[in-house]
Design brief:
single chain; about 240 residues; Nucleotidyltransferase, domain 5
Length: about 240
Amino acid sequence: MALILNIETSTTVCSVCISKDGNVQSYRESKDEKTHAKLLTVFIDEIIKEQNLKFDDLDAIAVSMGPGSYTGLRIGVSTAKGLCYAKDLPLIAVNTLQSMAKGIVTKIKNDDLNITDFEKSILVPMIDARRMEVYSSFFDANGETTREIKAEIIDENSYQDILSKQQMIFFGDGSGKIEETIKHKNAVFISDINTSSLTMVSLSEDAFNKNEFVNVAYFEPFYLKDFVAIVSKKNIFK
């Protein structure tokens, strides 16, 4: 039973919410690209004030740990760690892809989605990496992990052995670009599913109740791949 600030910045979405005993009390979210640095602390301040709270009232801070955008993850984790240091709060790291999977499971339970044979399906949340590459993992109908996180380059042969036997449900900002590549009757694509602090809540509450905290000093986001800087070819002196 806890009052938790949840922070999600692993993709283009900047999202924060306050949850109490596993229920959302207040949230802010923006899908505008490259706004994390500008909006994150503003959003946090707004929802704290909206609930007439002080940071000292919080029991923990949860942050989406990745995989995802290098810059987005750095901003989210740095902010979360700063608050934890300042207020001596425990830090919870939430698997970004599992959070997405839990969001789909919740939609099914709330009858917001109707998918045939959902209980027998493999859930495949995908985060856009580069070109035809995605970060992905597999989850069962309860949102539990069945295959570890991978960075994968998708082509027409991807997952064909699984699809021949079982339905796979693809979603997330990385799934749209592969929809025309993977053609199979057992491939189901769900659009407009994004990362969100709202889908972190059940996982952060569960982690708090189990005392599953990460070391604030040494925790690093799960990048999966090394950061690659893109050097502009434009001559700024011309």
